[in-house]
Amino acid sequence: MDILVRAGFTIATDGDDHVVLTPAGKSSQAFNLVVRKQPPRPAKVTSPSSGYWLFYAPEISAATGVALTEAGWSWLSEQGCDLRARHWRHHSPDAPPVSSASTTRPVRRGRPATVTWSVVRSLVMSSQPVRQVELAARADATQGRVSQVLSTLVDRGLVRRDTSGWVSDDRAQLAAWFIDSYPGPGGIESWWFHLDPLMTQTSLVVDTYRSSVLSGDAAADTIAPWRSPTHAVVYSPALLDLRSLGFVPADGVADGSLLVVAAPSDTSVLRAKRVADPLQIAYDLHRLGGADRAEAADRVIKFALQQ
């Protein structure tokens, strides 16, 4: 929801399927939230039940945005939004005008190709060849789709096939390609703050929400301790309301803060158990920024390559 944060909104979750939006200087509005990886085609859009409903998808075409608005939805994507509350309305410059019937497709902004990143994660983490059927099972994809991904990686000189399966002769190079090429996991972001030490915070969250996955400083500290962690990232398949655990919503990044990424478009992030895979941790360290984090990311990758 970066587009709303930049517009001065305060965002808080209220259960898995509700969100409360507060524009600067205006009253709060609670929305029933529907999150989808793909929006419906314009002809398939139906009106919601009574109340205030917000539809989120990473990409929403101009035509679908018009259809959602005319059907009574508020909607939000990574490119624009049209929000209608009881006492205010927010219409981003990038969203199509309500009166427009344009079917122009928005510019694609790197929505994660989950199968690609799942295959790369598997091959970086394995020093031995991996059969294509195993890669497909891990990615929850067809062998045909995995074959397309492998063909692209072969063309880039990153992997090869031998008699036992698929392997990378230079896993460090493959890891570096991931860090440079990965567009990010997508999803809905929210920042939280707690008075307890960061590692206590993260344990509280991942112990309570068993399907969540830890990344960032806190995850790096569990693999290759480097310094006292100051930030953590938690990936979750659904919105988390952490107020019941003693957290309060935060305006953004600050020392000791926790970033929750809900419903990531790249679902391969969620296939790790409790702690994210080293590639994701390294990516998040680079995203959080700082020379010491870049060094920590290198140590995390080296740890992975030694396994």
Write a concise keyword list for the protein shown above.
307 residues; alpha+beta; Arc Repressor Mutant, subunit A; 3 domains; 5-stranded mixed sheet
Q: Would you write up a description of this structure?
A:
With 307 residues, the protein is of the alpha+beta class. It contains ten helices and 14 strands. The chain folds into three domains: 2-91, no CATH class; 114-181, Orthogonal Bundle (Arc Repressor Mutant, subunit A); 188-305, no CATH class. The protein has helices at residues 2-6, 62-71, 114-124, 132-139, 143-155, 171-181, 198-208, 216-223, 278-288, 291-305, and strands at residues 10-13, 18-22, 29-35, 53-56, 74-76, 81-84, 89-91, 160-162, 165-167, 188-193, 213-215, 231-236, 248-250, 257-262. The strands form three sheets. It has a seven-stranded mixed β-sheet with strand order 1-2-3-4-5-6-7. A hairpin with a 4-residue loop joins strand 5 and strand 6 (81-84). Helix 4 (132-139) crosses helix 5 (143-155).
